[in-house]
Automatic annotation (TrEMBL):
This is Phosphate transport system permease protein PstA. PROSITE patterns: ABC_TM1 (PS50928). It is found in: Cell inner membrane; Cell membrane. The keyword tRNA processing does not apply. One of its GO terms (biological process) is phosphate ion transmembrane transport. Residues 169-223 form a coiled coil. The chain crosses the membrane at residues 12-35, 285-314, 326-356, 376-400, 421-443, 502-524. Keywords: Cell membrane, Coiled coil, Membrane, Transmembrane, Transmembrane helix, Transport. Residues 289-521 form the ABC transmembrane type-1 domain. It is a multi-pass membrane protein.
């Protein structure tokens, strides 16, 4: 036993066990997030509950959102009549009834002893709306401009409404944006050259074009508001829902297994590709996905050359002096600085100093409205580049240290300069280590939220940093981020219970984005490692 302990084998097994346990915990966490997040898009069955409480009988229609065992003593202290309850605990059902505009809440809680019957709701549809969340009810009628039409025309009405909404969205995002851009340029010219006749005529032409677009949008909204769906909700009341507010309608109790899977895929596709709505508690997260990926790529473009140049100086040119030692200590200490401190630095230096100077030099005609002197995606990328710079420097310097000096000496002996040796021989061989540093930088930067709250991220961005207007890439714009979206939905949402599944779904999506970026970088690193393996040997 003593010999076995001295051999070091127990420590090998202990280390392997710790690594295995860590992997199990990480995989379990990912499975939990994925199950709770992706399961939100699966069409749950809708039940009809007959509830009898305090001599009053009612009907509740909705999805079973959750179950929880509650002590009977706790219910008694809350003033609930628990006479006739068996056992020390009873199940409390949380039922998602939707119909927020009618019932005032999305959820109803019912105790199991109060449930007389629970059966699948026949003919009940789940209606996805632009506002006020989902609506549960039985479609009983359809009208076109107040005239009743067959209910079979509902699918055609929904398709027509989708087409009109797409046209409205295209006009608002392309025509109006282009017109606003022309107005901004014209106003800048008017401020510089005065009210010339030619500019005034151009302004009049733009105003006429704006009036035409406004009239076109008005006609489209009128066309969209003609049809209405009449739905009977669980209290027996008939509610009229405008077709323009209905995005989708499905009957979950009538789905087959294939139908459920197809609906799940469609809902997941909408979540990834649509814009958010209802204070981020409904809709999709495409602007947040785009903002996260674009910011990380921009940060990578900035941090990689800076980190490599710093590492090359420290390892290849700087001698072993006190100044070099202080630089290395400073780099190591920078890695431990809290991220919010970088956010404060980015706000004070990049936004208020650098951005203000850029506005004074290039955008003076737009002042006092700032262009770069306000938080934006460029300053966010620069802030995170500084935050992750120590990781890239240390990783690159370690890669440079692993390259044998004989390779450098051979290159110099063949007549190459030190710069040529670095550029053509040393840096290509150190590229796997550079990619390792970049992978670590991406993994950290993609999940940072605190500094971004100060230097560019917002709850809702009106437009993406890339569009069809010159100069096409707008680095001064604010952007959305998946990490901040999780914080906003989880802690700032007016309807936390309804938005909770979206927190899991967005978290799983953020992990997926980070893993995708890292796998891409790992693939490039492995390719480079195989390419230069023979030279290292």
């Amino acid at each position: 036993m003593t010999r076995w302990l001295r051999s070091g084998a127990p420590w090998v097994w202990l280390t392997a066990g710790a690594v295995s346990l860590s992997l199990i915990v990480v995989l379990g966490l990912l499975l939990l997030i994925g199950w709770k997040g992706l399961g939100y898009f699966w069409p749950a069955p809708v039940y009809q509950f007959e509830v009898q409480q305090n001599g009053h009988q009612s009907i509740v229609i909705g999805e079973v959102y959750g179950r929880k065992a509650v002590p009977v003593e706790q219910l008694t202290e809350a003033g609930i009549d628990t006479s006739g309850f068996d056992g020390e605990k009873v199940l409390r059902y949380v039922i998602k009834t939707g119909n927020r505009d009618v019932l005032g809440s999305d959820f109803v809680t019912v105790l199991e002893p109060h449930i007389v019957s629970q059966v699948p709701a026949a003919g009940v549809a789940v209606i996805e709306r632009l506002k006020n969340g989902r609506f549960y009810g039985i479609p009983v009628g359809l009208t076109d401009d107040g005239v009743a039409i067959p209910l079979e025309e509902l699918e055609h009405s929904l398709d027509q409404a989708d087409s009109v909404r797409d046209l409205i969205r295209q006009i608002e995002k392309k025509d109006l944006v282009a017109l606003n851009h022309q107005f901004e340029q014209l106003n800048a010219q008017l401020r510089n050259s005065g009210d010339s006749l030619e500019l005034m005529e151009e302004r009049q032409r733009l105003e006429q074009r704006f009036a035409q677009i406004e009239q076109q949008l008005l006609l489209l909204h009128q066309q969209l508001g003609r049809d209405s769906l009449i739905v009977k909700e669980m209290t027996g009341q008939e509610i009229t829902l405008p077709i323009e507010q209905i995005l989708d309608i499905w009957y979950p109790n009538d789905f087959t297994a294939a139908g459920k899977f197809g609906h799940w895929l469609r809902q997941l596709g909408h979540f990834v590709s649509d814009d958010p709505r209802e204070a981020n508690t409904e809709g999709g997260v495409f602007p947040a996905i785009f903002g996260t990926v674009f910011m990380v790529l921009l940060m990578s473009v900035i941090v990689t050359p800076l980190g490599v140049l710093a590492a090359v100086y420290l390892h290849e040119y700087a001698g072993k002096s006190v100044f070099t030692k202080l630089l290395r200590v400073a780099v190591i200490n920078l890695a431990g600085v809290p991220s919010i401190v970088y956010g404060v630095f980015g706000l004070g230096f990049f936004v208020y100093i650098v951005g203000a100077q850029i506005d004074d030099l290039f955008f003076a005609e737009q002042l006092p409205a700032p262009t770069f002197g306000t938080p934006g995606i460029l300053w966010s990328a620069l802030t995170l580049a500084i935050l992750t710079l120590p990781v890239v420097i240390v990783s690159t310097e370690e890669g440079l240290a692993r390259i044998p000096n004989s390779i450098r000496h051979g290159s110099l002996a063949l007549g190459a300069t030190q710069a040529e040796t670095l550029w053509r021989t040393v840096l290509p061989m150190a590229s796997p280590a550079i990619m390792t540093g970049l992978i670590l930088a991406v993994a950290r930067a993609a999940g940072e939220v605190a500094p971004l709250m100060l230097v560019g991220v917002v709850k809702m961005a009106p437009s993406l940093p890339i569009d069809g207007q010159f100069p096409y890439l707008h680095l001064d714009r604010k952007f959305m981020h998946l990490g901040y979206h999780i914080y906003d939905v989880g802690f700032q949402s007016p309807n936390v219970e309804a938005a909770r599944p979206l927190v899991y779904a967005t978290s799983f999506l953020l992990v997926t984005v980070i893993v995708g970026l890292n796998l891409t970088a790992i693939g490039i690193r492995n390719h480079l490692r195989e390419k230069f393996r023979s030279l290292e040997q």
